[in-house]
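Assemble and predict.
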Amino acid sequence: MSIQEVSTEQATEMITCVIDGFEITVPKGTLVIRAAEKLGIQIPRFCDHPLLEPAGACRQCLVDIEINGRAFPKPQASCTIPVENGMIVKTQLTSPVADKAQKGIMELLLINHPLDCPVCDKGGECPLQNQAMSTGRSESRFEGIKRTFEKPVAISSQVLLDRERCVLCARCTRFSEQIAGDPFITLNERGALQQVGIYEDEPFDSYYSGNTVQICPVGALTGTSYRFRARPFDLVSTKSACEHCASGCDMRTDVRRGKTLRRLAGDDTDVNEEWNCDKGRWAFKYEVAKNRITVPMIRDENGQLQEASWPEALAAAAAGLKHVKAGVLVGGRATIEDAYGYSKFARITLGTNNIDFRARTSSSEELDFLASTPLTATYKDIDRADHVVLINFEPEDESPIVFLRIYKQVHKRAIKVTSIAPFASRGTKKLNANLVKAAAGNEISAITELNELSSKSVVLIGERLAETPGALFAITQLIAKSGAKLGWIPRRAGERGAIMAGAASNILPGNRLVTDNSARVDIATVWSSDSLPSDPGLNTNEIINSSLDAVLIGGVDPMDISADAKIKLSKKFIVSLEIRQSDITDIANVVLPVAAVVEKSGSFMDWQGKVRSFEAAVEQSLNRSDVRILSMLADEIGKPINLPTVKAAKSEFDSIGNWDGSKVAMKSVSNEPRKTVGNDEAVLNSWRNLLDKGSLQDGEDNLAGTARKSVVVISPDRAAKLGVKEDQLVRVSNDYGAITLPCKVLDIEESSVWLPRNSVSSQLIRNLGVVSNSIVKVAKA
Amino acid sequence: MSKLTPVLSAHWDEADSFTIAGYKRNGGYSAVAKALAMKPDEVIQLVKDSGLRGRGGAGFPTGNKWGFIPQGDNKEHYLVVNADESEPGTCKDMPLLLANPHVLVEGVIIGSYAIRANHAFIYIRGEVTHVVRRVQQAIEDAYAAGLLGKNILGKGFDLELVLHVGAGAYICGEETALLDSLEGFRGQPRLRPPFPAIAGLYAKPTVVNNVESIASVPAIINNGVAWFSAMGTEKSKGFTLYSLSGHVNNPGQFEAPLGITLRQLLEISGGVRNGHKLKFWTPGGSSTPIFTDVHLDVPLDYEGVSAAGSMLGTKALQIFDETTCVVRAVLRWTEFYKHESCGKCTPCREGTWWLVQVLKDLEAGKGVEADLDKLLDLCDNIMGRSFCALADGAASPIISSLKYFRQEYLDHLTAGRCPFDPMAATLFETSGVK
């Protein structure tokens, strides 16, 4: 056992002190204000926040303290002082001095604060309002002139600042610096004119800016989209989970009269702590978009979709799916329950293993990997890690809470981070990561050369690693060699759950191989079925390219898979379960409307494998979860799946449990030889920026306003050869098409060129037909 | 004149006192050679034994401060000189640096050697360009003379000395705000602990000393502990610079042993403006509670002033005669503190904003007697509640002026205006001026 392990596993020293006459024992390092909370003694505070470093700025939490008989000469800020043995603390409850000090501070805080609570977003849930009641005077003694500012100031398109409301607690600026690593807001000026501000024309450019609105203890920071829209006491709050990515954020959805007005980060120390990203917070307008589908539709003989009744539509869908060769595309956004419904529907109703949840670039190596490789890493492992390795994974863009967790340890313990990527992204730089440059397709040597990994190391790989043949196999070897913890972090919220639900061509629920007899018997027993199909089915690409007659599709954008997917699918009978009109409903023969996340209950499985359940926030919705519709459709076809409700699906899925039988080792995959590129050529690389053209971000312009600009990243050498300077236009093309964007000259791997995968003016599948690991031509535009 | 003990100011009247030649002619840089021949711990012990206390206001024993720096920790140590003199009334460091910058440079070399620092910084206030130039020149000359840089005087000690020019904020005289500012951030006081001795500049062990404290060290090295501690009082040893300003016939810096009284200093400085009598004064700059003519015989050392209810501070004696409206003077100071409050904590930021408004009304004769109690209560809510001592300094003159001159406040309210003629208090010629 190393020295470090001894120290971290040592029992924490406990400290006993007395607060207001009550003795309490807490771990060493606990702040007085926190120890008091444990006794149920609420000391008023503004700047204090348990996840931020103490500031001691607002002075609202002053208490009297003595240690071993020696009293501090003046009241102390309880948010800055750790408890000590023999400490006697007197809060406002027992010390007249502390009580007067707190009342004095409250009075001072209010002299310059406007009495605009009736129009302030925060009114009704405002720490200043509440504590002014508990700690303030009934009437102000201030007769002077209040400080005023022009208002509001947009510090970004999505966050507005009302400076006269600000109590200058510095929570927002500390969050930006300490938690997000985006110190783009600071306190400027001095004295009573001190104010939160941005630098000249540089807005608050952070994927996490919404958290500052949430932790602002007054109404100084407001969200542009929510400002003046609602009163907190008119909202009905529902605990929910975020549907945007696999980070697994706990959320709160606030609804008024059937309409979602805002979403907030929920508290879960094991997952998102108290934070979330701006996409999770603000991208929810898609559910009320104009192209929302509310009734079933059937394509008529003229090729037009016509509204239909549920019985008509179900009958039409059943007719098209019955007695034909069919497949199922689930998409990566299904809940566990819905994915389970699709999985069972494919096997029981359609009698096939032709099912895949991957609406993206994918490989069969990946299916093999996912069916055979234990994914062991968790957020807690990041907290303890000595080294975090990121491979084809950009946490800030692809799983933002994972980024925060790593950043926290970089900030606190300066842990080692290594990233295998074509260039150092902004996130990589913030993590102070050691960059191992690799062109797309050439990551394997970088993977096999990784050393210095231990059982305390965490290897996090992205779904994009499947784009390099052999890379996932190399990962299994790396893990076997090093004993490091492995995390596979897909972008979408439903992918990990879909694997567990068996929504893939090679596995049944609980990670049971379809080719394993006893595994099939397990599931067949639960499903009361005589037998289940035993041949591995077709995967996403195979289904699209196959001669199948019919495909049932739930929430898939064909442009996420390939440029010709739509055309190929249009030749088949398509049943589409969708919330909005899409490329699939365009070609579907039958369209069945389903509920959006806020309208249904269900659960996602985050990248750690932790189940994130949520209840319906909008209860009046007529729309039903996919599994309910599938169950009706199965009934109509005559091969019922008996999952009439989300609850039924959940309890049946939970009864299955994980496979404890033997696992097959992953098949070895050879890697491709290194590509050589010509002078005017490059290896294409890309990933999706957090904020991009993703359809779940539709309808939220304020959020889109903070998306990063689309650029082509090229190396200085290439820039020199092309004769272009930063921001000049560069054209990236192949036989399929071309994209022209301003270039950014960075220290990118020499043979590589990078573009955002699905951003404004840079939708790679649409424009180039490929996303990565492919040769393109690069020229000055 | 017998009471004066000119050491730092001994050669201020020589035309070339600020040059390295002038400084050396008068024995300058001889202490460095002596100190570098000693062990660093011996230097610390010597300064401890001398009883030298910080001249920046708080009076903390300088040698003890040096002794707090952890030794053998394999970390960089830093010596930072606080030359951000900016309190109203305080004018000792700037004249010293103007007339004798080399004494500070010599002190810095000795102090850095003692605490094992190879980098030292002088943080100087930016407005005093002429002083900045002289200190910069002194540093350059010291480098040229082999007194700074690598292998100083061939003794194997290296020291880089950097002059940093502040941007003009009173708060940067607070040592942790100074460190933030020196690091390139906005100057705001830091949370303590950690104290600078453990994690100061760039989170490394750091000593922050006032100009005068450091400048006093060469003389102590040269003349010894006995010489130094023979001056002053029991707990306040040595000589110091008293700065007299205001309604005094011969204002300026007077270097005398600690414990001298204002009565004695007034004798030396030609007394209160002719035809007028002392009304009130500050013992240590505007942030120390004011005194009146009953305090003429208070010994001006750390203990004496403290026992009389104020603080020795920077020994900045601002003298006000009977033509001065105390309400007006206090308002001016309060406006200074409002302007200089850094804004970090509530009581200082909001409190000074409010105090100015209340005092403005009172000076204009608006308000009722209860407003005085409100003012005192406000001061009570500010004093001792703020993050650093700036707000205490803001409240002190108000509280003390109300203690000694409450009736004068009331006179304003009775008259409905200020009963004083502000012109009468000015120091320039007023006859013929309308």
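Chain B touches chain A at residues 169, 171, 186, 191, 338-347, 349-354, 357-358, 374, 378, 380-382, 384-387 (CB under 8 Å).
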